[in-house]
Amino acid sequence: MNATLPRGGLRLPALPAPPETLRRIVERLPVEPPSLLLALALNRVLLPRLDSAAREALAGQAVEVAVIDFGVRCRLALGPTGFAPASGTPRLRVAAPAQAFWKLAAGEEDADTLFFERVLVMEGDTEYGLLLKNTLDAIGPLVPAFLRAR
Questions:
Q1: Which fold has domain 20-147?
Q2: What is the pTM of this model?
Q3: Distance separating alpha carbons of residues 93 and 76, to the nearest angstrom
Q4: DSSP collapsed to 3 states, 37-78
Q5: Which among 74, 81, 93, 120 has the fewest CB atoms less than 10 Å away?
């Protein structure tokens, strides 16, 4: 079977937030399983696009990514072999709804706009957060062009 995408790319429908009770349960689950999945994805999509200077600057620091409408948290660090789940207190925490993270990854929105509209929240080491943001801005969209809406 040969599946094709619509001409305008893949447009994901808005994801309905899970019921509050389910979100509270998910928030209590360990961060390791989703962290491992995100680390594997970033090792395929982001790691090859990071130059050695960016890898060195970002290495060894735990970052927590929280998808607030789903209650999912991931804690990662960049090490010598790539991204991996991290433990302990993160140096930086970035929180936003799932749709905001998708728009960032697809290049449909920039982090500054989402931050000033209070959709995206960054807590912790501001200098490290700016380094991460500027690195990601320089790389461009992480979602392949054929999957992005046009």
A1: Nonspecific Lipid-transfer Protein; Chain A (3.30.1050)
A2: 0.83
A3: 10
A4: HHHHHHHHHCHHHCCHHHHHHHCCCCEEEEECCCCEEEEEEE
A5: 81
